[in-house]
Write a structure and sequence with these properties.
- Helix 4 packs across helix 7.
- This protein is about 45% helix and about 10% strand.
- The protein has 13 helices and four strands.
Length: about 325
């Protein structure tokens, strides 16, 4: 699950949202130009599913009270399931059903976005001004290696299932009074100061989106496909990476607790274990012996001695010849 927050696909979120709104209408434009066979796709926001682009631009651009010329006015949230996740959705709901369920999921993601600020009065997507756009395709850009080496052209559709959601969310809340910026990651001088600033944890937001997907769609995620694993292997300390690799060696389901791997990987990502020994002793206190699991012998079929193997080949060859001669006699 890839969830990312950026300024804008068009590179500027300090002025009007018009350029971004128009950019996100690209599949509707392509439908007219190339006849992709797709219906016109309007915007949604949890209260409506047939919102026109003019309304999106107008409401976002008017919700900017007390923001300066150089202040961010809106942000773009990209919700992109992986190929495995999309395959799961298509198998479970079909293409049209997957589209509608993914839009439902996006509404719940915006609930998590709102709660992540930990601001009084900001409790769900209903407290935000936001609009989502469902998209079926992704396109090669000048930064892709395929375009650079000449195997693909800029603007060409990427292969595979590429269904995803793009969301424009206003910097200000629905009442146009409270500033909400996911760029504010400062912890502040104290708890009260942090609450006033509306501290936002991007890591917590991405993790909550992944957990939400797994619960909402009953998706069984492998450790190596998890955000905790990817983020730790990219940004973690040497100790955290070692702990995660040890956890990777435990077969899923061997612990007898389906949530064990998820919980321990979360603790590793948070840096709760100062050493491998501490991780082992902590899990042992819960009745799960990681060391024993890692040391369990793996069954290997006994090797046949050369004479027995040659005799077995001779018998197979003789049987094959007999079967062929019987077939010809018929």
């Amino acid at each position: 699950m890839f969830i990312n927050i950026t300024a804008s696909e068009t590179g500027n979120n300090q002025g009007s949202s018009g350029a971004l709104v128009n950019y996100l209408e690209k599949e509707n434009h392509l439908q007219i130009e190339k006849g992709h066979g797709l219906p016109h796709e309007n915007w949604f926001n949890g209260t409506g599913n047939d919102i026109r682009r003019q309304e999106v631009r107008m409401k976002i651009d008017r919700n900017i009270a007390k923001l300066g010329r150089n202040d961010a006015k809106f942000f773009l949230i990209n919700i992109s399931p992986s190929q495995k996740e999309l395959a799961h959705l298509f198998a479970k709901y079909g293409e049209q059903g997957a589209k509608e369920k993914l839009k439902e999921f996006a509404v719940k993601v915006m609930d998590e976005y709102a709660r992540n600020f930990k601001r009084p009065g900001i409790n769900s997507h209903k407290d935000l001004l936001w609009f989502g756009k469902h998209e079926n395709y992704r396109y090669y850009s000048h930064t892709d290696k395929e375009v650079k080496n000449g195997t693909k052209q800029k603007g060409e559709c990427k292969e595979g299932q590429q269904m995803h959601i793009q969301i424009i969310v206003s910097r200000k809340d629905l009442t146009n009074r409270i500033k909400l910026s996911p760029q504010n990651t400062s912890k502040g001088k104290n708890v009260a100061h942090s609450e006033k600033l509306g501290q936002f944890s991007r890591t917590a937001f991405k993790q909550s989106g992944e957990n939400l997907f797994d619960r909402f769609f009953d998706f069984e995620r492998g450790l190596k496909d998890s955000f905790n694993y990817a983020n730790t292997m990219k940004n973690g300390t040497t100790i955290q990476k070692t702990q995660m690799k040890i956890l990777e060696g435990i077969p899923r389901g061997q612990t007898g607790n389906n949530n064990f791997i998820e919980n321990i990987s979360s603790d590793i990502a948070k840096g709760l274990f100062q050493s491998v020994d501490q991780m082992m002793s902590t899990t042992l206190s819960t009745g799960i012996d990681l060391l024993s699991m890692l040391l369990e012998p793996v069954y290997i079929a006994p090797e046949m001695n050369p004479a027995e193997e040659a005799e077995k080949r001779r018998r197979r060859k003789k049987k094959k010849g007999t079967d062929q001669s019987q077939g010809l006699s018929r």
